[in-house]
Amino acid sequence: xxxxxxxxxxxxxxxxxxxxxxxxxxxxxxxxxxxxxxxxxxxxxxxxxxxxxxxxxxxxxxxxxxxxxxxxxxxxxxxxxxxxxxxxxxxxxxxxxxxxxxxxxxxxxxxxxxxxxxxxxxxxxxxxxxxxxxxxxxxxxxxxxxxxxxxxxxxxxxxxxxxxxxxxxxxxxxxxxxxxxxxxxxxxxxxxxxxxxxxxxxxxxxxxxxxxxxxxxxxxxxxxxxxxxxxxxxxxxxxxxxxxxxxxxxxxxxxxxxxxxxxxxxxxxxxxxxxxxxxxxxxxxxxxxxxxxxxxxxxxxxxxxxxxxxxxxxxxxxxxxxxxxxxx
Length: 328
Prior knowledge:
Layout: H1 2-18, E1 24-29, E2 42-47, E3 53-57, E4 62-66, E5 72-76, E6 89-94, E7 100-104, E8 109-113, E9 119-123, E10 138-141, E11 147-151, E12 156-160, E13 166-173, E14 180-181, E15 189-194, E16 200-204, E17 209-213, E18 219-223, E19 236-241, E20 247-251, E21 256-260, E22 266-270, E23 283-288, E24 294-298, E25 303-308, H2 313-327
Antiparallel strand pairs: 1-25, 2-3, 3-4, 4-5, 6-7, 7-8, 8-9, 10-11, 11-12, 12-13, 13-14, 15-16, 16-17, 17-18, 19-20, 20-21, 21-22, 23-24, 24-25
């Protein structure tokens, strides 16, 4: 408890400093199509330690890799069920070792690749038991390499090692095998991200709220309700956390990204419906790099947009590391 309070105190101070930074449009890339750098429904985005940007291109059944400024680098994947193939990829994440994980939703599995797209391993199958999935849509990796999957239609989050060994699960879905019951939390997680102190942040489209859990599934807090006002949601479909602990949520049907302080206090929002710079058409995945640049998968406009104004990741790593040593 002492560590958690101290972490939040420091994160809140960093968040206060962040609030003075304006979020500004920087760049965009992508058009509708199937060629390199084109998209057919970009749903999720991730950034690796070198600042490279990975985008899951749903209807093209592939992952595309770009430089931080949107220069096309490579791509991999075709439609199918074989190793390195996809059917409805909906999530992507990168770990500290540079491996890239892709949530292959319609094939009910996670696939692991090198940063250049070489297949490494896979896990998962259709079903409701441990290590099985039904229409999974959220994916995140923590600093220790554990992989978290939003197993959407099974109403739970599952945690795995980096090579796919099942660790634990939480949510509330009595028909799963065995039944999933952790504090009776009813969730339909469509996005997951790593938050302050290693907590898990999940976007829940069942109740239109954002949940925060510990890394073993204990509920910490939640916020939000259905609607279009500040702090309200209509299909939250992406979530990420910056170096000050600020939480960014892509509010898909409301065509905006909302920003919250640790704990859920509304701070600001950006975006309206449209196709101009800074506008969105059903924004989906959102990610942030070590410099605080924000990347949004602009699903309906078949593009990725880049914004400045987030806090650098180094702020969070330094703060958490010092606090853990202080209170160990």
